[in-house]
């Protein structure tokens, strides 16, 4: 079964997905992480994606479908959290065509006040080695610039600055928000209040998942 986790950039999808993996045995598939791995490896897909991602724009649907299929094929776990897909109506329709093998159980919408998103994203730092995520104010590492988990160097994502975040929020409004209506129509939409501390949000999201 698939649980889609959706919401605006900075809503906390990655943070909550990592907790669900750790505490509830989910396998996370993050299309953003998968694309960043392709960029790091210097593949053709990575080269194509790099410019679009740095600009805050979406990567073409056909590229994403290849990535999704490869990630699903490499997954043996029964509970899959899909973070970052679908991001537009066409991707939502595509995912629906896979329902025999991968039925979507729910689409959890982490709903966060828009004024919070910018500060969450501009303060985010990510480990270049293990991918762990921190925030300079809300969840700082013990030693500035150094990952608590593996000692790797913390970096700022190229799309985490004010200019690019504005583009990403526009893309979210215009292309991703209709996906929420799509799942409402399918009877799969579940809103979760994403404001408050990571722990508070995790409690809400865990309750929402228990009730599925
Ligand atoms: P992706 O990596 O999916 O980025 P995004 O959706 O913009 O989401 P983010 O990862 O930026 O935010 P998040 O909600 O995971 O927040 P996080 O938990 O890290 O995609 C990147 C790009 O890839 C796209 O722009 C596009 O180009 C491409 N792409 C990916 N999928 C695609 C698709 N399907 N189709 C086409 N293109 C695609 O939290 C953010 C910060 O806030 C962190 O520092 C965290 O510590 C902090 N924080 C989180 N929760 C809290 C809290 N409760 N309180 C305080 N701080 C918090």
Please write out the topology:
Blueprint: E1 2-7, H1 13-24, E2 27-30, H2 31-41, H3 44-54, H4 61-73, E3 80-83, H5 89-97, E4 104-111, H6 114-122, E5 124-127, E6 133-135, E7 154-155, H7 162-185, E8 189-193, H8 198-210
Parallel strand pairs: 1-3, 1-4, 2-3, 4-8
Antiparallel strand pairs: 5-6, 5-7
Helix pairs in contact: 1-8, 2-3
Bound molecules: BIS(adenosine)-5'-pentaphosphate.
BIS(adenosine)-5'-pentaphosphate binds at residues 7, 9-15, 31-32, 35, 52-53, 56-59, 64, 84-85, 87, 91, 120-121, 124, 133, 135, 138-139, 159, 168, 197-198, 201.
Key structural traits:
212 residues; alpha/beta; Rossmann fold; 5-stranded parallel beta sheet; 3-stranded antiparallel beta sheet; 8 helices; 48% helix; globular; binds BIS(adenosine)-5'-pentaphosphate; Adenylat_kinase_CS
CATH-scheme architecture of the domain at 2-26 and 77-113 and 163-210: 3-Layer(aba) Sandwich
Average pLDDT figure: 96
Number of helices: 8
**Quaternary arrangement of the chains shown?**
single chain
What's the Cα radius of gyration?
A: 16 Å
> Which molecules other than protein and nucleic acid are bound?
BIS(adenosine)-5'-pentaphosphate
The helix-and-strand class reads alpha/beta
Number of strands: 8
């Amino acid at each position: 079964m698939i649980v889609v986790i959706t919401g605006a950039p900075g809503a906390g999808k990655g943070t909550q997905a990592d907790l669900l993996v750790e505490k509830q045995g989910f396998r996370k598939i993050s299309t953003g992480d998968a694309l960043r791995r392709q960029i790091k490896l210097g593949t053709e897909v990575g080269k194509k994606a790099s410019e679009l991602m740095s600009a805050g724009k979406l990567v073409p649907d056909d590229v994403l479908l290849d990535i999704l299929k490869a990630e699903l094929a490499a997954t043996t776990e029964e509970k899959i959290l899909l973070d970052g897909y679908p991001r537009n109506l066409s991707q939502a329709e595509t995912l629906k065509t896979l329902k025999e093998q991968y039925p979507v159980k729910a689409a959890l919408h982490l709903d966060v006040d828009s004024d919070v998103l910018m500060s969450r994203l501009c303060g985010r730092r990510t480990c270049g080695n293990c991918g762990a995520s921190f925030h300079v104010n809300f969840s700082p590492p013990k030693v500035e610039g150094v990952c608590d988990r593996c000692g790797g160097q913390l970096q700022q994502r190229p799309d985490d600055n004010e200019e690019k975040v504005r583009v990403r929020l526009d893309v979210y409004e215009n292309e991703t928000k209709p996906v929420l209506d799509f799942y409402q129509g399918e009877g799969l939409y579940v809103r979760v209040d994403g404001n408050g501390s990571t722990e508070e949000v995790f409690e809400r999201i865990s309750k929402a998942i228990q009730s599925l």
